[in-house]
């Protein structure tokens, strides 16, 4: 019979969960201790674990956390993105302790595949026995590949529709007759003669084959941009986009008292909403976004914040729920909630920052000197440059008596209109990073933290965005590089992402001061 929790209180349910898992662990030990036992014992253990996992993931506590998460965290395990996507990844190591990591990974894939195929708890054991683990694993891999193909096909179709919309809504010349009759309807490539006076004649129809036309259309719309724009069109979608970008650009896990501060403003008669990373750290790589228009419900100048856990919750689950809105907590004049209604009720708290702590955020400016521009097309090359340096260090350490630490910072060099990043161990090895109008070298030694550069590269390359900006001074010269990226909003509006890439100014990896108290 399927596992059922008989208690109503959360504590009692958790105790029942612990007892149920202890019985599963006992079965797993029996299998492991008898020379890996029989296939029947393995199937029985996996069937009980599937029963356990499906039940635990379907029950949530008052904070909207599944029992699986509580169970894993109670055992000091990690409830990270892989575990959230497939909880069996986290459960298998506690079930089988003597099996290889590869076997546990395979079993986790099979269990997750059963969940995706909606195999019932009662039917799971027979489902597994019908084909065996190896065949089900191959089936899971094929299903994953098929799903990926479907997602890619859907994304491609979305981009083609977007490109078609861009073309049909843009400027066009008057209709003219084709030089030869054709029944084709749609996009095509043609050979056109332009006379130099803004007049053109079609000379020949070259191609109507969609396999050749589609690549030309796809160039008009970047891959990730289409998906992000669609997500941003949903209720609170632009807030989710801002949070996703800011979490990608900042060292959220490494900063003390990290929050995302949200506040509606009126600036020069214009409604805006500021979403900013804040921390009690003295200086850090900062990111924030200014949204055009106000978020609903929140009063002007009333700041609320998402803690890291809440921000990651919204980042991970925004796409799984619909009907997002902001609601005011009854009986609390300061607190609000982010609420979704479909397919189930979900609540994420928005609360004011603690008044007992001093928080800081970046201090960007509207316009600076020594402009820079960053082309997203070069960013994969920068990541490869860094990876190669790490690989070289690891390879050479195998031959050294005194090991070198992994690289932590990049030197910089002006080469014409390019700002290059340079390996400290080999000044002759460099890669172009930015274009800049700067003419003068740095007065004092300046470096960039490798982890900061990697976050910039990964975030902007994933959304296929170019950036512009400039160098900024603070209490020291050349304290940071500010990057600005405009994202489309409603109509002709734009949301502006800003990030400060602080300079490292000492061998101890100390940052220049780029933040201010709020």
Summary of the model, kept short:
This protein has 518 residues and is α+β, with helices and mostly antiparallel strands. It folds into four domains: 10-140, no CATH class; 187-221, no CATH class; 227-362, DNA Polymerase III, Chain A, domain 2 (Roll), CATH 3.10.150; 370-517, DNA Polymerase III, Chain A, domain 2 (Roll), CATH 3.10.150. Helices cover 38% and strands 24% of the residues.
Written description of the protein model:
By secondary structure, the protein is an alpha+beta fold. The chain folds into 4 domains: 10-140, no CATH class; 187-221, no CATH class; 227-362, DNA Polymerase III, Chain A, domain 2; 370-517, DNA Polymerase III, Chain A, domain 2 (Roll). 38% of the residues lie in helices and 24% in strands. The protein has helices spanning 10-33, 39-57, 67-74, 81-85, 88-95, 101-116, 124-168, 210-218, 223-232, 237-249, 308-317, 379-397, 450-462, and strands at 189-194, 200-207, 259-267, 270-278, 286-292, 304-307, 325-328, 336-340, 346-350, 360-362, 369-374, 409-415, 418-423, 426-436, 447-449, 467-472, 480-488, 494-504, 515-517. The strands form 4 sheets. Strands 11-14-13-12-15-18-17-16 form an 8-stranded antiparallel beta barrel. Helix 6 (101-116) crosses helix 7 (124-168), helix 9 packs across helix 10 (237-249) and helix 10 (237-249) packs across helix 11 (308-317). The chain is globular, with a radius of gyration of 28 Å. The mean pLDDT is 86.
